[in-house]
Design brief:
Layout: E1 8-11, E2 13-16, H1 20-31, E3 36-39, H2 50-53, E4 58-61, H3 64-75, H4 81-91, H5 94-101, E5 107-112, E6 124-129, H6 136-141, H7 146-150, H8 163-176, E7 181-184, E8 189-195, E9 198-206, E10 209-215, E11 219-221, H9 230-236, E12 243-244, H10 253-260, E13 265-266, E14 271-280, E15 286-290, E16 299-301, H11 312-315, H12 322-325, E17 340-345, H13 346-351, E18 357-360, E19 363-366, H14 372-376, E20 381-383, H15 386-392, H16 398-414, E21 434-446, E22 449-450, E23 457-459, E24 465-471, H17 488-506
Helix pairs in contact: 1-8, 1-17, 3-4, 15-16
């Protein structure tokens, strides 16, 4: 804070970040009679929150007890049971609450928990904009995932106002038309104001100058994870490099600010992801794209041409595929699956786009519909044989890659795959020319951040709540080892955003007026 800088305000609650979590915290606080300020670091015309970039699916709950057990099992011991229970309880009413605050979406059930082998997966439900209902049979018949469908990958143009764009527009409009909520764009948070052990406001940069803002009931950090902070990723994630296609504004601001006032951190090594394409434009700009590998046929190998996974997990866009890519080879003393190599033939090349969209310097950059632009840029490598393609892709053993694909083709004929692929996915690569795309571990977001409790209160290193400080969304979300279901990120943001506001307004002692 600049010397002699007098705080402006106060507001009842200040929310850092304007995505699903920030919207939920602000709207719930307004319901409770509060006057709220949302500060958002991105400019209004360049605002790309994770919600906007997502598929727009929201995880809900039909049975709180069973869902709590399921979430607890998915967490792998990284999330206290009380936190998982709080999430399940809030998620059980999320659909009704969205309608209550004015979100004009008809949400239909589409899917259950991702891990069918874990009891309670059917107590979790995925809600999706019912406008997509007409496409549901097509999505399932073509083996596309919910997230692929939600981003319009299965048609040339996709339904209008689909997925996360539509959801965030609704949340944003609810916020902007609420007279109790004020939004500042282009106002990055710099530090929390911490007086006598309590968070009482935040310092932001406004018009190039630091400005102190005061809040009676504290601050909710809803500013995303650290997906675009190379130093934090290198030090906390299990491997490097890892690339993300989410909001480029997620640079770990909340981690830094929370640590500065004594916050503990948790599961900083966790993320949501799978294989992604990380590419470079001719001018040096780097972009990351979500990738859809099937159908039809597909094979993924390591640098030495060996298959190492059931690729159907990547085809389904499972959220834990990245774990397979992190393996360290003691034989070669390297991570031989970073990158991995995805092989396919002409049939897949002409079926539909290989990728989704990336956020570039000049806005959103969608993958081309016919994949031709990406082929010309060298992001896709082509050749008349698998060995030629592997050599052009820079693999260490192109001949082994060819043998692996030949063995896979034989598995397609026999109906039995060494990696355990479902028989319906065993479509041979036999229609040249052939293609390869390098895949890196990555995805939508990181999961770690300030440790929170079941009331969304940020905890210090002794496990005690830091008065006046709350968190919601990707910044320390309640996701541990396994991502529970499509829409888990948005569910956490909406649920813990609500909980954060309720906790702030449940505190009797607030900053003196």
């Amino acid at each position: 804070m600049s010397p002699g800088c007098e705080p402006r305000g106060p507001w009842d609650l200040i929310v850092v970040g304007f995505g699903a979590a920030g919207s939920a915290a602000a709207l719930r606080a307004a319901q409770l009679g509060g006057r709220v300020l949302i500060i958002e670091k991105q400019a209004k015309d360049r605002h790309t929150p994770s919600t906007y970039l997502s598929g727009g699916v929201i995880m809900g709950v039909k049975d709180v007890e069973a869902a709590t057990e399921y979430l607890d099992a998915c967490s792998g011991g990284l999330i206290p049971l009380s936190v998982s229970r709080a999430w399940a309880e809030s998620a059980s009413t999320i659909k009704e609450w969205l309608r209550e605050i004015g979100v004009d979406l008809e949400l239909a059930e589409f899917g259950q928990g991702e891990h069918e082998e874990i009891p309670g997966h059917d107590a979790v439900v995925c809600y999706w904009n019912a406008e997509n209902a007409a496409y549901t049979s097509h999505v399932r018949s073509k083996s596309f995932t919910t997230s692929e469908a939600a981003t319009g990958w299965f048609t040339s143009a996709g339904p209008p106002r689909m997925g996360g764009e539509r959801l965030f527009e609704e949340l944003r409009d609810c916020v902007l038309r609420n007279p109790a909520i004020e939004v500042w764009y282009g106002a990055p948070a710099l530090e929390l104001i911490h007086d006598d052990g309590r968070v009482t406001g935040v310092v932001v940069e406004k018009d190039g100058e630091p400005l102190a803002l005061a809040s009676y009931r504290g601050v909710v950090l809803a500013c995303g994870g650290f997906a675009f902070n190379d130093e934090l990723k290198a030090n906390y994630l299990p491997a490097n490099p890892v690339y993300f296609y989410g909001n480029p504004g997620n640079t770990g601001d909340g981690v830094r600010m929370a640590q500065a006032v004594g916050a503990d951190l948790w599961h900083m090594n966790q993320m949501v992801g799978r294989g992604v394409a990380h590419v470079e434009m001719p001018d040096g700009e780097e972009l990351t794209y979500s990738i859809s590998i099937g159908p039809p046929g597909y094979v993924i190998t390591d640098r030495y041409g060996k298959r190492f996974m059931n690729e159907y997990a990547q085809a389904r866009s499972r959220h834990d595929v990245y774990l397979s890519l992190f393996d360290y080879s003691l034989e070669h003393l390297e991570r031989s699956r970073i990158p991995a190599y995805w092989f396919f033939d002409q049939r897949r090349f002409t079926t539909r786009p290989l990728g989704g969209r990336a956020v570039g310097r000049d806005g959103l950059r969608p993958w081309s519909q016919d994949n031709r632009k990406e082929l010309e840029l060298g992001w896709i490598v082509s050749g008349e044989t698998i060995e030629e393609v592997a050599r052009k892709a820079g693999m260490s053993d192109p001949a082994e890659a060819a043998r692996s694909v030949a063995a896979y083709n034989e598995a397609c004929r026999s109906g039995t795959d060494a990696q355990g692929r479902p028989v319906e996915t065993l479509i041979p690569l036999d229609s040249g020319p052939y293609y390869c795309v390098r895949l890196y571990p990555g995805g939508s977001n990181t999961c770690g951040g300030p440790r929170r409790d079941h009331e969304a209160r940020v905890l210090d290193t002794n496990g005690a709540p830091i008065p006046g400080l709350y968190s919601a969304g990707e910044l320390g979300e309640a996701v541990g080892l396994l991502y529970p279901a499509d829409g888990g990120n948005l569910s956490d943001g909406l649920c813990f955003g609500r909980l954060a506001a309720e906790s702030a307004f449940a505190v009797a002692e607030v900053m003196a007026e």
